[in-house]
Batch of 2 targets.
Target 1
Amino acid sequence: MKEDLLKSLKSLTDDLDGSVQKVQTEAGLSELKATYLGKKGRLTEVLKGLGKLSSEDRPAVGAKANEIKNIIEGRLRSALESLQRQSIAKELAQDTFDISLPGRTEVVGNVHPISQIFAEARHIFEGLGFATCSGPEIEDDYHNFEALNIPADHPARDLQDTFYLKDGRWLLRTHTSTVQIHIMENQGAPVRMIAPGAVYRCDSDVTHTPMFHQIEGLWVDDRTTFGDLKGVLTLFIQQMFGDGTKVRFRPSFFPFTEPSAELDMSCHICAWKNPSCPVCKGTGWLEILGCGMVDPAVFQCVGYDPEKITGFAFGMGLERMAMIKFGINDLRLFFENDLRFLQQF
Ligand code: DAH
């Protein structure tokens, strides 16, 4: 009896090995499990015989039955694992991808050189107490010319210099000096402001674009002198281009300032060392901005009393400053939006 039971137990594992090899699916394995280990399965059938054994034989056969149960469970488990591995391998084989492809990276933009120059200029002027203001780009004749002491017959009004809008009354501002007028019309002295912005001229060649950018500055109170003008602008240039930069004020003419000057800074590309320097043409100086003491005629237009009020103004081109600061030799690069150019700054 005992021998029969032991034989049946052994045949369970032998049979199982044969069946497991034929099963290809997880469902098939579950069925097999039920066949061998289920309530009505083959192991249960064999165990029914245990009751008929003598009490000496029962423990040994019981222990063997447990062992066989563990073996069956173990084989079914590893068969399941191997099926799962196969299906993953199959999926991977079908779903190939190229692991040598570069990863996706975020494209981070950077600040346009003109905006960088403006941010730096603003930082310097705000440190000196200037407020940043703005004015309209579409102007009337009065704010662009008349109030700035540019009479109707002045050459600066040449039709070709300016974009007039249809009715001739409006135009695209040709300089940011217009903002001086707007600010002084709206507030009394003292004024300390800068005004950045786009300006337009009917010009287009290697060194001119129809649109470019300026910063205007205005400092007005009851005792401003040309000394203040020189101090503020020298400090600005030295902070922008380096402490060692030299400046000189050259007499000039602007209708809205008297006296007027142009400010030249020393050429930091050649520092007077290269007589054929392409940037300063060997002179050692670079023209950088126009400035002067506000003309009394301008104060009169905005209702300030020129007997009591003095002030200075200045205007500079941002593109020119960026070209000098970054060593850029073609103005048009600023407007082409070529990333290979823009990413260098
Ligand atoms: N508006 C002048 C221009 O566009 C620049 C300028 C010169 C502005 C002298 C000023 C100044 O305020 O005082 O060429």
Target 2
Amino acid sequence: MTQRTALVTGGTGGIGTAIIRYLARQGHRVATNYRDQAKAEAVKEAMAKEGIEVLLVPGDVKDPDSCEAMVRIIEGALGPVEILVNNAGITRDTTFHKMTYPQWMEVVNTNLNACFNVTRPVIEGMRHHKWGRIVQISSINGQKGQYGQANYAAAKAGMHGFTISLAQENAKFGITVNTVSPGYVGTDMVMAVPDDVREKIVAQIPVGRLGKPEEIAHAVAFLTGEEAGWITGANLSINGGHYMGW
Ligand code: CAA
């Protein structure tokens, strides 16, 4: 199989780490950004023990200049980015009537504006080389809304609008653009939801449990594969049956 260069943002978090591991095991060169050096070193060390070499580059997805610099460093070290997974994300949950402007902006900047900041520096290279795979990691809550997440749901829904426009503009350049919408996966982000609230959420999942990060990584690997060239503009729900939109 063709070895590609992959950038997965937010690769020090639960789902991001699983995606990096999966793509690396497929033989791809993998890179991610970090803001917290200690967390990055721990991830690098854990990956090295599994025989996975990951390039970690400082970068804040909220900041366009930082993203441009990060992409240039990755390209210098590993070659042009051919697979991009916009995965970095945060929550600042609170009901809208209590939400502050910073809580709104941090979430929109990190989840949605980051898609511009990171994709803009890689898209010309993909168009030039006539091959690319872009995946947005959105959320079930961008599809169905969620009490306490007006900021997050708006940003996550916006990510799929980004996907379907980019998919149209870049199809003729061999670039596919898709969204994966995970449900509640057992990461730190979901475990931060109060226990009683989370238990009620899990009770609504037909499969009867939280998702595993590898179950999301598996879908990303599928969508970024060579054989997935006819899948573009899709939104793949992976949520244990929690939301069955069509
Ligand atoms: N539907 C209807 N009512 C709800 C509700 C719901 N889903 N959730 C809470 N409420 C009600 C409560 O029953 C309570 O009602 P009473 O006042 O009548 O008792 C009331 O809302 C509490 O409202 P407050 O404004 O006082 O809320 P709060 O400040 O105590 O906290 C919250 C609200 C922060 C939203 C909290 O409920 C919460 O954390 N909810 C979970 C949000 C969530 O699912 N986040 C997902 C994080 S993981 C993630 O985002 C990953 C991913 O992509 C899936």
